[in-house]
């Protein structure tokens, strides 16, 4: 079993941000942009506890609360179903009591205003006031498909208003090193732009653009 990331590593991942980590990983690990934070100010980083919730049912989400460890993020496949809210304020209260630090769901939720007030980071495909059943026998801890991206139990999820990215378990330190190097490079770019350099020069695009804009 892979070692869980430290609080310091998770804080650095949140600070660097999803877009920087995605680019630094070689444009790998993004989750489809159909899944968005219910509040753009929300950020999260932590190990995934994967849940096959199924459409219009939240039995496995209740089950996941019994298996979660403090610091986990629930990552649930609800098949993208938008006509029932599988998560609400009561589940949020229970999740926070268990130390769960966020939810990513390929499906819909409800009680958005209350969840925002509770400061619980939640990324979903949409909102629906309609209720769910509690009968689907899915799974907890098995790989899930989240809008086309496979997430394994223990993978690290990083999210902010730009989107969501998956860092594979065991690759946290290398992802941090690559992301920091990219951040340092972009900081240097901003300094050079302030001194008069163009993005064309900095990115070596002069030759590429010369065929479009010949002298």
TrEMBL record:
Its cofactor is Mg(2+); a divalent metal cation. Pfam families: RraA-like. It comes from the Bacteria. Keywords: Magnesium, Metal-binding. Homotrimer. Belongs to the class II aldolase/RraA-like family. Catalyzes the aldol cleavage of 4-hydroxy-4-methyl-2-oxoglutarate (HMG) into 2 molecules of pyruvate. Also contains a secondary oxaloacetate (OAA) decarboxylase activity due to the common pyruvate enolate transition state formed following C-C bond cleavage in the retro-aldol and decarboxylation reactions. Its EC number is 4.1.1.112, 4.1.3.17. InterPro entries: RraA/RraA-like, RraA/RraA-like_sf. This is Putative 4-hydroxy-4-methyl-2-oxoglutarate aldolase. It is an enzyme of class 4 (lyase). Substrate binds at residues 88-91, 110. Mg(2+) binds at residue 111. It catalyses: 4-hydroxy-4-methyl-2-oxoglutarate = 2 pyruvate; oxaloacetate + H(+) = pyruvate + CO2. GO terms for molecular function: 4-hydroxy-4-methyl-2-oxoglutarate aldolase activity; metal ion binding; oxaloacetate decarboxylase activity. CDD domains: RraA_family. Coiled coil: none annotated. Gene3D superfamilies: Ribonuclease E inhibitor RraA/RraA-like.
């Amino acid at each position: 079993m892979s070692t869980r990331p430290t609080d310091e590593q998770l804080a650095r991942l949140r600070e660097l941000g999803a877009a920087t980590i995605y680019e630094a990983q070689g444009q790998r690990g993004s989750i489809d942009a159909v899944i968005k934070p219910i509040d753009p100010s929300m950020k999260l980083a932590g190990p995934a506890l994967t849940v096959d919730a199924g459409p219009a049912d939240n039995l496995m989400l209740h089950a996941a609360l019994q298996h979660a460890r403090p610091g986990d993020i629930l990552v649930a496949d609800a098949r993208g179903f938008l006509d029932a809210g599988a998560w609400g304020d009561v589940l949020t209260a229970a999740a926070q009591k268990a130390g769960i630090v966020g939810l990513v769901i390929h499906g819909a939720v409800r009680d958005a205003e209350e969840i925002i007030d509770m400061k619980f980071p939640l990324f979903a495909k949409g909102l629906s006031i309609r209720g769910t059943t509690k009968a689907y026998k899915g799974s907890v801890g098995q790989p899930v498909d989240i809008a086309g991206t496979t997430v394994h139990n223990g993978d690290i999820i990083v999210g902010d208003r730009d989107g969501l990215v998956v860092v594979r378990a065991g690759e946290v330190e290398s992802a941090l090193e690559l992301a920091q190097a990219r951040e340092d490079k972009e900081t240097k770019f901003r300094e050079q732009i302030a001194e008069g350099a163009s993005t064309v020069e900095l990115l070596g695009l002069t030759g590429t653009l010369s065929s479009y804009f010949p002298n």
